[in-house]
């Protein structure tokens, strides 16, 4: 920044640009968003306990935590928007910049990394037209605005390694073919990776598999 | 609160005695052991133990402990110099420096930098770091007053803690996480808040620097000069950073009994007014319609001749920034040399003076009696009493605007000790958020509210109010605790306070009243005799006219001369521009002023005034603490000490004061003000002394000597129906009347000459705004930013609409002190009409 730019920046600063707690009449909160935030506030004795649910509601409503959305939430909660922004930038699941329609978070922690997370990210990015380094360091959107890919820390699903969370559902184990298929399916709006979702596993309520033949042997031995 | 018991511990083999529960880092100082710290700053509240710089070894605890957050107990054995400790501290320094640029040669903090000191004292001396450091755009403005260099930041949290836990504005936050963390604001907005300058002083590195001080001086170029800021009644203790006889900066001079070590931005950056090139530096005399420079002898003679001629038809207005000495000498000249009783120092009248709405002026006996009663030593609370009070009532004032540093002190009491805060004001206060109870009365109805409160508290002779007023008073009364309440109050109509004080047993230790005067030295000026109803020491004198009476008399010609000492009534007093007409009719206006302003334009003789940085003298804090002003810079040009000028003027008029030095002037005051008896500069010292704590306090006038009065003060002498609103009065609600609201006024923190005269602060200068409740704005068809005209009885003020949710419907608020007629509308029902669309 040049000295001249700095001078102009300072001259443009007005006391009313500061952002204390906004008043409700200064923002235009959509009713649905306001109801969600108020419902969250009603659950806790301390209003601040509702900050994360409120940010979550903002993200659901606008796709990401927009400055205006955070101001609206701040006005409903009676806190400063700066407080909400400090939380939104702290937690990885909150987006503080515009984000593509579908979100693919790829685990790059030890288990997944050992099982090929780098290749998985590479394949996803190649299919989506994203720079893989950028995706792995903070996340990146595809040029068509359909897919956001981000290298992510452990999501606690090491049994699925290498895994990814696609639009908040866990999938794995995934290979590079799955990656290409997933991007295509997301673009087409069709079902993503049938059979690969954690939710479709028996332990998560999916169909029971055939019994393990070895288990049968032990049982018959007992009998 | 009793002092904690003292215990003994062993630090590095030396026995150290310290109070039980003190933090180890403080306790070690009793044994002359310094433990290095970064994030530790007791002013910020509870320690956080974030930086790990202060780790020490404690016998019996296997791991190293942070000395800043470990309370000491008897028999503790501590080592601060073992290999293990040294290695850990050296590692912490190495970590702190991992991302620090070490650009000390071009850094403003160089030479007074805690990081430099600690790195030299406890660091490894060499860096093993080979990786690139963090990079940010730098330096960028965090606000128009502060630049932030995020590369230098070591993430100690101090500034963020200040914003969150002291000022409680919460605009400054740590954004992002881990190694990406940085200090910032929402959406890159500027951080603009009234106390934000404190983060410059808190920053232990050069990450937050004052825009005005950047590259102006090095620590070895400068001298510190301790004095007291007289820009508002807080009277914070300050250190002027002086280089080549110019003030370059103002720092806090920690005085726990006054300011807790904080300053508001007005005090921190307002020094620029003293250094302004536009100051009047020599006496001026009007000749042929123009003011021309004159020598002192000529100017003094011209002033004396004019005053001699006017004689008892002279009035003096003493402005709030005047020292006790200035005020005392001015009133002595007017009373003794000229035989006039008309001396005033209150822009809109002090306690006991009726507001315009209730009309008229009470009898002198009562006015003095109210003063004597409400300012009595037994009812006086000190600022530090706020740290002990169980409940605090803020009544009729918003400390942020009237006495900013009290705002922080009250927040501290609520935050750290859970003191119960009640706020009763006409205008919404910034303290409302932390208050247990708040009550809004209609502008001008404070008297009714206080009487209702006295009744709810059980004071004899007060009638309980009905309806909303009664319910509000009941809620507020419920939040207060007898014997342990401090009431911070301001306003003219607060006579029911005597009843409240009695019912709440405010004469007990740790309870009491703190009155926020209108002027910075309002209390001192009152006690040295700058009142129309009382002389020095609140002595009985012939009653003079108050401010509006003086204005009317000047206008009518029954007063002929006006002596304005550090006062610009056109800007600061009720009536505003009407003063211009009144002063225009006077035969002689003698103005003592730092600048040419609206009032000096009417002056015939102008004496250049000293700034607070040049003054020698004393001021009296609202809690009775006498404090010393000490000259930090020489007088510019022909400016002379005001006590000297006034003493000479007195001599020319035949009043020999014998004052030949500032200590002489104080001695003269002490001889006439019984409860200041014997006080001297030496006794006041660097941190001041409350006169209530000296033996001479027993000479405070006795209420019975002041005049006959009833058991219940205020009732007897006042006409019926004044303490409470008339039956059927809705407390100023005017929603039913189309287009009409009741207007209150307040003195905005920045509605002051210092804002206009200090380049750094100019961007804060307020524009006239009419604050309205959303409902009223909708009813009147007004939106934020609309230009409106506010009118009543031929007085009109233009303002921009500003909508505030917490404004009581039916009320509206204008800013005083902007040189318009807003203050004349106080308490009036006004009509509002649109004068323009929003910008």
Arithmetic mean pLDDT of chain A: 92
Q: What fold name goes in the CATH topology slot of the domain at 300-350 and 521-704 in chain B?
A: Rossmann fold
The CATH superfamily of the largest domain in chain A is identified as Glutaredoxin
Task: Determine the mean pLDDT of chain B.
Answer: 91
CATH C-level category of the domain at 300-350 and 521-704 in chain B:
Alpha Beta
Which pair of chains forms the biggest interface, and how many residues does each contribute?
A-B, 30 and 31 residues
User: Roughly how many Å is the radius of gyration of chain B?
Assistant: 28 Å
Q: Hey, roughly how much beta strand do the residues of chain A contain?
A: 5-15%
Write the topology of this structure.
The complex is a heterodimer of chains A (223) and B (839).
Chain A: H1 3-12, H2 31-42, H3 51-62, H4 67-77, H5 81-90, E1 102-107, H6 110-114, H7 117-128, H8 132-136, E2 140-141, E3 147-152, E4 164-166, E5 169-171, H9 176-188, H10 213-222
Parallel strand pairs in A: 1-3
Antiparallel strand pairs in A: 1-4, 2-3, 4-5
Helix pairs in contact in A: 2-3, 2-4, 3-4, 4-5, 7-9
Chain B: E1 6-11, E2 14-19, H1 24-29, E3 55-58, E4 65-66, E5 77-79, H2 83-96, H3 114-122, E6 140-143, E7 146-148, H4 158-166, E8 173-175, E9 182-184, H5 198-202, E10 208-210, E11 223-228, E12 237-243, E13 246-252, H6 265-269, E14 284-287, E15 290-293, H7 296-310, E16 314-318, H8 324-337, E17 342-344, H9 364-374, E18 391-395, H10 399-402, H11 404-417, E19 420-425, E20 437-440, H12 446-456, H13 467-479, E21 485-489, H14 497-503, E22 512-515, H15 522-527, H16 547-556, E23 561-565, H17 569-572, H18 577-585, E24 588-593, E25 605-608, E26 617-620, E27 625-629, H19 642-652, H20 662-672, H21 681-684, E28 689-690, H22 703-706, E29 740-747, H23 753-757, E30 769-772, H24 774-779, E31 787-792, E32 795-803, E33 811-816, E34 829-836
Parallel strand pairs in B: 1-5, 16-17, 16-23, 18-19, 18-21, 19-20, 21-22, 23-24, 24-25, 29-33, 30-32
Antiparallel strand pairs in B: 1-2, 3-4, 3-5, 6-7, 7-10, 8-9, 11-12, 12-13, 14-15, 14-25, 26-27, 27-28, 29-34, 30-33, 31-32, 31-34
Helix pairs in contact in B: 7-19, 8-19, 8-20, 12-13, 12-14, 16-18
